[in-house]
Design brief:
Order of helices and strands: EEEHEHEHEHEHEHHEHHEHH
Number of helices: 11
Mean pLDDT: 97
Structural class: alpha/beta
Shape: globular
CATH architecture of one domain: Alpha-Beta Barrel
InterPro entries: AKR2_Oxidoreductase (IPR053135), NAD(P)_OxRdtase_dom_sf (IPR036812), NADP_OxRdtase_dom (IPR023210)
Protein name: Aldo/keto reductase
Helix content: 40-55%
Largest sheet: 8 strands, parallel
CATH superfamily of one domain: NADP-dependent oxidoreductase domain
Strand content: 15-25%
Low-confidence stretches: none
Radius of gyration: 18 Å
CATH class of one domain: Alpha Beta
Number of strands: 10
Pfam families: Aldo_ket_red
CATH topology of one domain: TIM Barrel
Strand order of the largest sheet: 3-4-5-6-7-8-9-10
């Protein structure tokens, strides 16, 4: 799989990861967890590494920790979780719970979820990074309305990662936020790549354009993901799924040719014409 460097370290990260919102908030039964275990196994086999979670996502952290521990693969993944609370001690307590649930002594990335009390939580994260408990720190949001605030933050604060929404139709991040992240040496994780599934409703029953094969696109999911990955500011995209077949399809976007700037515009224009 294609890999891109994290600017603050040059560590290479595979460009397609996995989101866990909703899909990994399941119970403890075999019927609930078996498909998710298969998703994680296939992800590793296909070269994926980053799994994104949050205390906001119900039992997702615990399920990820349990499944990867049972498979003996916990240390092979890049775990990204979040702190989502107000107050210093509440943040410290929540971080401790995340580490316990995900069965980690060191977390690869901790992000301030949706900028909640970000000044307080970033201070703690810097302390934990200095102590070696956290490798990278960052901030997240999922709405376009937060882009200006995110841009101001990455201009004024030293962080490693930014997580933000961006898709083939919701392109506001291209205007200024993504170029600023690239200029400031901040890695970028993209959420909402499928616009909560609405993109698939738009193309339901429609055939891919024949020319999309020029970019090794074999499905609509890869069409949407390769559009995102064609932006050089993007480090990793995190489509969420609990379906092993969809996981394999998504991972395929990290292989083969990517559109250049002209090709990216062609993808967007075709979708707009439907």
């Amino acid at each position: 799989m294609l890999k891109r460097p994290i600017p603050t370290s040059d560590e290479l990260l595979p460009v397609v990861g996995l989101g866990s919102w909703q899909q990994f908030d399941v119970g403890s039964s075999d019927s609930d967890r078996q498909p998710l275990g298969q998703v994680l196994t296939l992800m590793q086999q296909q070269g994926g590494k980053l799994i994104d979670a949050s205390p906001m996502y119900g039992r997702a952290e615990e399920v990820i920790g349990d499944l990867t521990a049972a498979a003996g693969s916990n240390a092979n993944f890049f775990f990204a979780t979040k702190v989502w609370t107000t107050g210093r001690q509440a943040g410290i307590d929540q971080l401790g719970e995340s580490f316990r649930k995900m069965r980690r002594k060191t977390m690869d990335l901790v992000q301030v979820h949706n900028l909640v009390d970000w000044q307080t939580q970033l201070k703690t994260l810097r302390e934990w990074k200095h102590a070696g408990k956290v490798r990278y720190i960052g901030v997240t949001h999922y709405t376009t309305l937060a882009h200006d605030q995110l841009e101001r933050l990455i201009k004024s604060e030293a962080i490693d990662f930014l997580q933000v929404n961006y898709s083939i139709r919701v392109r506001d991040a291209e205007r200024s936020l993504l170029p600023t992240a690239r200029e400031k040496g901040v890695a970028v994780i993209i959420n909402e790549p499928f616009e909560s599934g609405s993109l698939f409703q738009l193309v339901k029953g429609k055939a891919l354009p024949a020319w999309s094969a020029e970019y090794d696109i074999k499905s609509w999911a890869q069409f949407f993901l390769k559009f995102i990955l064609s932006n050089p500011a993007v480090t990793c995209v995190i489509p969420g799924t609990s379906d092993p077949k969809h996981l394999l399809d998504n991972m395929g976007a990290g292989y083969g040719r990517l559109p250049d700037e002209k090709g990216q515009a062609k993808l967007a224009a075709f979708l707009a014409s439907l």
